[in-house]
Amino acid sequence: MAANPSVLVTGASTGIGATYADRFARRGHDLVLVARDRTRMEALATRLRQETGVAIDIIQADLTQAAELAVVEARLRDDARIGILINNAGTALGGSFIEQSTDDVTRLVALNTTALLRLASAVAPRFAQAGEGAIINIGSVVGLAPEFAMTVYGATKAFALFLSQGLSLELGPKGVYVQAVLPAATRTEIWGHAGADVNAMTGVMDVDELVDAALIGFDRREAVTIPPLPDVEQWNAYQAARQAMLPNTRQEHAAARYRTAV
Ligand code: NAP
Question: How many angstroms separate the first and last alpha carbons of the chain?
Answer without folding.
Answer: 61
